[in-house]
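Next comes a single protein record:
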Amino acid sequence: MNNELTPSDIKKMEDEIEYRVHIVRKKALDDVKEARAQGDLSENFEYYAAKKFKNQNESRIRYLQRMIKTATVISEESADDEAGVNNTVEVKYEDDGSTEKIKLVTTVRGDSLEGLISIESPLGKAILGHKAGDRVEVVVNSNISYWIEILSIENTDDSGDKIMSF
């Protein structure tokens, strides 16, 4: 999988790392110390819960750092009339005539249940760079494909999008 991130993705990840290192880590360590001070660790649920939370926080920090380190930075820019990252695109599925509005995003922001479609997905790859009115084949695999029509493209931003957890 390519690790394509926009400068905005990287900024959001750096902000989360900063918050987790300076705020969450301190609280997690304090919680572990407090639970440890309660005595017998063999039956101390609070101690194990605090340790688990601390370890999850450290794991998330390492994950975000690794994502940034291995990222290929891509542009959020696209021509006004072409589908690009952060654009909301209305598509019509030719097989049943249904329409859907989707937003093209990088993989770390993808959430198909929320209409956020990764540019690495078959649908995202097919739409990228096309214009309203274009008829596009979405190739799922060597045996399955379908056709869509791009009805409209709206320039939107990523201000409300979150970096997904792992």
Q: What stands out?
A: The mean pLDDT is 87. The chain has three helices and seven strands. Helices lie at 7-36, 45-69, 122-127. Residues 123 and 138 are 6 Å apart (CA to CA).
